[in-house]
Amino acid sequence: MKVDDGDLLNFWKALRTTTIGEKDNSLKLPDNIHFLGRTDEASVLFIRQCYRDLLKVVFSNNTRRLIITGNPGIGKTFFGYYILYELMRKNATVIYDKANKFPILFSNQTAVVGETLFSFYDLLNKQDVWYIVDGKEPHDVDAKTILVCSPKKNYYVEFDKHPLTKTRYMSTWDKREIDACWEKIYKNKVDKKIVDDLFYKWGGIPRFVLEKANEGTQQNKLQEAIDACDESILMSSIGKSEAKQDISHKLIHIMTNPPIEESNDYDLEGDDGLEEDDDDVEYVEEEPYTQKIIKFASVYVSEIVIKNFEKTIMNKMRTELNVSLSNGISNPVLGSIFEEIAHTILKNGGKFKIRSLDDSARYDQTINRRDKIYTFLQLKR
Which domain of life does the protein's organism represent (predicted)? Predict the structure, then answer.
């Protein structure tokens, strides 16, 4: 069964007369028109450079099945809308299938909603038809299939097994993209200082830096993710190509390799406050957007996680040291650790209880904070 939807049809007709503003890289629908005809969807689309780059892969004759993935909240759904716009310009027949929504058929002047995907079964088995899937596992069909989804493998584990399936990674946003999008869409909605502060905390995730900047419960999710994370597991994922499934993508970001000429223009050092080592993202002549490296979401996140990780290690070492001392067990490794712990505590200064080794007298002594630890040999000099 297929259903006509007036708002959906109005969107499709409006899209056919809308052009991308070359100066501000945006696609703005007419007033009261929203993507897919839904009032809870956006009406302006900011066109990122990576959208244009990835579109070349979408339209390649060598592409029949394609996965576009990356961090949640970076605009993969909007990339699907951009594909839809470009396919409209080519007069292509498109079946758009979004998670928890009814599938939609777009063709020429027609836009209809299907009760189930089976409503379009015949079309899905035509090779000249496009099948865009957002946030769910695609069906195995002959139509050219584009899946946009988060890194959760359950969305694409079977789809990825197909010999013709390709995968590309969408990058997080740099500060210039955030600023440009704020200027075009969010200038009257979010204070710029708030945006700058949130970028420092979240890194390049526009969902939290722009879209939900003023929503306190959404902003609390970063601290909630930090509190819930296992620092040792998270630390072991940094710099790797894969992260443990239970690590929140609010704390880690997927870095990828943009085109070399594009990467040369980007000052990656400082875009999100993280200084990039050469080992983090290596710009070699690999096909763009095919590499994946895990990094901290931001300096803010890395500092907190590393500090918590250090506390965890120190507490564990103190516990083991106390057990060793209480039981009279000699352990040279713990002895060295005890020395480091003692040096750290003394260097930070404070009031300490002192016991003389000569007469066992006990008293308190205040030690000022020191920036450097001196050895006895250095003091003799």
Answer: Eukaryota
Query: Which residue in 305, 297, 254, 238 sits closest to 273, CA to CA?
Result: 297
- Cβ-contact 298, 202 below 8 angstroms: yes
Q: Tell me which residue range forms the domain holding 98.
A: 2-169
Count of domains observed in the chain: 2
Give yes or no for residue 343 having a pLDDT over 80: no
Q: How many C-beta atoms lie closer than 10 Å to residue 239's C-beta?
A: 14
Q: What is the pLDDT of residue 323?
A: 72
- pLDDT of 340 reads 61
Q: What is the pLDDT of residue 359?
A: 80
Residues 120 and 197 in one domain: no
**β-strands 44-46, 26-28 pairing:** antiparallel
How does DSSP classify residue 190? S
Closest residue by Cα to residue 70 from 86, 51, 83, 84:
51
* Domain boundary, last residue among 246, 268, 297: 297
- CATH number where 94 lies: 3.40.50
pLDDT(142) > 90: yes
* CA distances to 50, 78, 222 from 292, in Å: 15, 21, 23
Dist CA 367 CA 102 (whole Å):
70
The answer to pTM > 0.85 is no
Please indicate, yes or no, whether residues 133 and 9 belong to a single structural domain of this protein. yes
Contacts of 281 (CB under 8 A, 6+ apart): 255, 256, 257, 263, 268, 291, 293
Query: Which of 8-12, 18-22, 93-97, 180-184 bottoms out in mean pLDDT, i.e. has the lowest?
Result: 18-22
Q: Pick from 270, 297, 324: which residue ends a domain?
A: 297
- Cβ-in-10-Å burial (0-12, 13-18, 19+) of 201 comes to buried
